[in-house]
């Protein structure tokens, strides 16, 4: 007979609540991405004009990012992995293709970032890390090294989740009185470096 300690039950409740918030944030970021590309008067004009001028790259980035951010949370559910392993594999392939598309689009737009040099470098590094961690996650799954695969996917999704934290942090900094031109270069870094640190701390605890 297996005995489940009360602290394990409450820990798993907290994990479920955290997962639900993660999915909610992901859905809002995905909706923002689709609205940004489809509604004329929606979004920052300096960013929008570039995304519309090269619509293929614009859609590659926003749709790829939107699909990746929404698919990611489902990949962490062990119930899905155990009961329907094929679903996990195919969703994972779609996720990684979406990351590839989003990252190529991100690399295309990073050099002209409205955040100036901090934006160019911050988004540029993020796009390279996004690709690198995705490639490592894929390679380790192919080698059937599932411990490494899980670790690389956690790192990779922490970067995908920058789409959520960027908009949250930008809003908070603007509420705190910073204007967009000051706040945006900051979040070009903080939106993913903090997520990455949280992911590394999580992996260390495990
Ligand atoms: C994680 C790697 C990512 C990188 C490197 C990246 C890069 C960029 C860059 C360079 C821009 C233009 C900003 C500027 O002009 O300064 C941008 C804007 C944008 N990105 Fe990403 N991005 C990433 C993730 C995502 C994801 C996952 C989504 C979708 C959920 C997304 C959706 C958007 C949208 C909608 C915009 C337009 C501006 C806005 O609404 O804030 N990005 N991104």
TrEMBL record:
Keyword Cell cycle: no
InterPro entries named in the record: DUF2306_membrane (IPR018750)
Signal sequence interval, chain numbering: none
Keywords: Membrane, Transmembrane, Transmembrane helix
Transmembrane region(s): 20-39, 59-77, 89-110, 116-135, 156-176, 182-203
Name this polypeptide is given: DUF2306 domain-containing protein
Species, as recorded: Steroidobacter agaridevorans
């Amino acid at each position: 007979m297996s005995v489940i300690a009360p602290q394990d039950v409450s820990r798993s409740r907290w994990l479920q609540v955290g997962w639900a918030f993660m999915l909610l944030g992901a859905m809002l970021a995905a909706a923002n991405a689709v609205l940004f590309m489809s509604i004329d008067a929606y979004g920052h004009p300096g960013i929008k004009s570039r995304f519309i001028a090269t619509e293929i790259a614009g859609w590659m980035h926003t749709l790829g990012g939107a699909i990746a951010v929404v698919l990611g949370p489902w990949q962490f559910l062990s119930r899905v992995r155990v009961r329907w392993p094929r679903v996990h594999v195919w969703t994972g392939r779609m996720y990684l293709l979406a990351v590839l598309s989003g990252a190529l689009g991100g690399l295309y737009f990073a050099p002209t970032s409205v955040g100036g040099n901090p934006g160019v470098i911050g988004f540029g590094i993020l796009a390279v890390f996004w690709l690198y961690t995705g490639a490592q996650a894929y390679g380790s799954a192919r080698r059937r090294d599932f411990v490494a695969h899980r670790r690389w996917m956690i790192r990779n999704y922490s970067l995908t989740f920058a789409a959520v934290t960027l908009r949250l942090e930008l809003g908070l900094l603007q509420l705190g009185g910073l204007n967009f031109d000051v706040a945006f270069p900051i979040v070009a870094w903080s939106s993913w470096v903090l997520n990455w640190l949280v992911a590394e701390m999580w992996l260390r605890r495990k």
